[in-house]
Amino acid sequence: MANETSTQPAPVHSMDEIVALCRRRGFIWQSSEVYGGINGFWDYGPLGTELKRNLKNAWWSDVVTCPPDGPDGRPLQIVGLDSTIIMNPKVWEASGHVAGFNDPMVDCRQSKARYRADHLVVLQPAEGATNADTPWYAFVEGQLDSIAKKLKKAKVDPEACQQVPLPELPVASYARIIGPDADKPGTLTEPRQFNLMFETWIGAVRDEDSRAYLRPETAQGIFTQFWNVVDTSRVKVPFGIAQVGKAFRNEVTPRNFTFRSREFEQMEIEFFIPPDAAAEWYPWWRDNRFAWWQSVGLAGDNLQLREHEADELAHYAREGAGTSDIEYRFPFTAPGFGELEGVAHRTDYDLRQHAEHCGKGDKLRYFDTDRNERYFPHVIEPSAGADRGTLALLCEAYTPDPDRPSGVYMNFTPRMAPIKAAILPLVAKDGMPEVAENLYRQLRRRWPVQLDVKQTVGKRYARMDEAGTPYCFTIDGQTLEDQTVTVRHRDTLEQQRINIDQVPSFLEQKIEG
Ligand code: GAP
């Protein structure tokens, strides 16, 4: 993934502040935090769970239940699938993951740390050009600060150094490199391939025959069930199969909060088309997926679409096949961007591979009744990350505002907001709590809403601002007289009065309208 990190400052606000809010308000926590956490694994708290669920539900609703019309103006056919995380290991031989799902790694013989070679940058002091004894200093891209003490002690000014990616240096020069966590040169090994799939064993005996893998992508579940879907669902090419589910990758350097995790969730569509139809469908999917991310709240300059260069294409992509990334400018990638979703023309690679590896070969070609022709369909694959999407929503929503008691508010769209509305009796007496509870009971049947009775109304607004609740309905003395409530709009702080009976239709229009 290109453009992931940079030493530039974040454009608007720091990632540390966003991470702190996520922790404080229960969006995201370290997995097993009471034991000190576990690197690359994250849990979603109550607010984070709702936020991520909203994103996944919106995806399902907008691509499976009610997708946009296709390029021919006809309704799209997309069906769902829920396949297993552990599959027959032959799947991963056929897909190319056993042989090819590798990252080049270097180990440090002194610190025992392991790094992705393409994540290491080497600082070369200017005098090193003339003096071969001058050491060079490696650091993990974007984490120059982590070797600041070492550089200060050696009186090395990083500004006066050249920065070179490790893979561009000959292995012979590693003898003069001090690793990110080492204090003497020459401890980095030459790069070795490391397979990213997590392994496990099925049954009581742990040997080659019982070895299995946790899926590194949900896509292969879809490819291997393609034939069952065709035989049972009355779908005809062009059609899609969609799946949301966990994927696992033993990332060497998990980092940037949830961005690069070892356990994460994907939202994938494999869209099957005739072999000659990619020119029509690939740009259609690319543009529609970009528009979808805009629709959930990533509408500004922080979202971009980027076509891949030829040297970035994945192992299944043939020359000329289109691949693009939908990218978001996260605070830790700024001014660069990080990938949210890839849209790839995967050709007929996967279906052919599975047909060959299972021994049925050409017999598994799809029969197109309209064309009276057999073929392996080509695939356009929009593959998105639910965790990266959630993280982008959090970063985009984070809006510092020194004039508010909370100092910040989260401006999620009403559709994405974890809590859609709060119902606040102004004081906990005079019949106001009862009216509030009635409204709460009515609204919670349809949406996640909160009844908050305790503390001053200002403090309650502040809590809702941090949670990103778009509307607060306040029940006050006037409500008891004329059945109106105050609506407080989170972003503008505007207050309006509406009749209490209109609250459900008001919310419906804002969330679903
Ligand atoms: N089936 C194609 C595929 O898996 P990918 O680009 O490797 O393609 C798709 O992954 C999406 O999954 C990415 O765009 C990203 O959003 C998400 N993803 C991949 N690796 C991830 C990781 N280590 N942590 C969080 N999300 C990840």
Number of domains: 3
Indicate the CATH architecture of the largest domain.
2-Layer Sandwich
Number of helices: 14
Report the radius of gyration as a whole number of Å.
27 Å
Strand order of the largest sheet: 3-13-14-20-17-16-15
**Overall body shape:** globular
Write the CATH homologous superfamily of the largest domain.
Bira Bifunctional Protein, Domain 2
**Proportion in helices:** 25-40%
**Weakly predicted, low-confidence segments:** 1-11
Mean residue pLDDT: 93
Topology, number of strands: 27
The biggest sheet, with number of strands, parallel, antiparallel or mixed sense and barrel status, is:
7 strands, mixed
Structural class: alpha+beta
Bound molecules: glycyl-adenosine-5'-phosphate
What does it look like?
- The two termini are 36 Å apart.
- This protein folds into three domains: 15-100 and 212-395, Bira Bifunctional Protein, Domain 2 (BirA Bifunctional Protein, domain 2, 2-Layer Sandwich); 102-194, no CATH class; 405-512, Rossmann fold.
- The chain has 513 residues and is of the alpha+beta class.
- The chain contains 14 helices and 27 strands.
- The strands form eight sheets. A seven-stranded mixed beta sheet has the order 3-13-14-20-17-16-15, sandwiched between helices. A five-stranded mixed beta sheet has the order 24-23-25-26-27, with helices on both faces.
- Helices cover 27% and strands 26% of the residues.
- The relative contact order is 0.12.
- Glycyl-adenosine-5'-phosphate is lined by residues 217, 219, 249, 251, 260-261, 264, 266, 268, 339-342, 383-385, 387-388.
